[in-house]
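Question:
Write out your own:
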Amino acid sequence: SSPATRGPLDLRDRHAVRGPRAASRPQAPSARHATPLTRRAPLHRPAPDPRPAPGLPADAPPPTEPEAAGPSTPLRGALRGAVPLAAAGLVANAANLGVTLIIARAMSTRSYGAVAQLIAIFFVVSMPGSALLVGVVRRVTQWQHSGRLELMAGWVRRVRRAGVVTVLAVAALALAGRGLVAHELSLPGPGGVTEIITAGAAWCLLCVDRGLLQCARLYPALAVNLLVDAAVKAVVTIALVLAGLDQAGAALGVLCGVVVALAHARLALARAPHAVRA
């Protein structure tokens, strides 16, 4: 039939017109065929093996993690370094007291007074030693923290060389002026003046090496160094005073103690692999 005589579009014509649009349009699934949201599958962990680890007995306890170091670890380290030094200091002071009692009974009043004056000279001359020790510790510690360890050996070598030259110069001046010093202090004689002044200068050089021992954390060696100084000084002083040298023997004993302690400190630094070698 012609289009003029046709009625409304029949069902086939409607599907023919709507077909392409319906094919290009996505159709939503029906409620009955809709799939639920995807869920994450639970993780399946393997069950622990009840058998013991190889090499361990069956009744061995499970391994535990090492406990962290408690706050007492720095305190223990400090005590480990301070106790030997404190004990060595007490022994050295006790030895000095014993030497004083022995030589006081063996010497006259004037000679013992001369020994006291010579010891006072030693304290005055050796006073820069404490400042040198603190300066060495600060300088070396700063280089250790900044990683400039290559500067230490050369600096220590120069300081030691300058110290030896200074000690020799002081000894020469003391030898030249011992008569004047003895006259000004009203000493019985010039004996012991050169020795005690040289010992004070050498003590400053010893303080440099003791500062290096402290920077290297060689506290046992430093404690032994204190004992070596006290032991040599006590033995030589008592022996020479009892031999009749009086104040000269006491001064020579102090010098021998400082020199032997200086040699011991150099040897301890040379034996330590992490210490300064110059």
Q: What stands out?
A: Confidence is low (pLDDT under 50) at residues 1-5, 19-24, 31-38, 65-71. The CA atoms of residues 8 and 14 lie 10 Å apart.
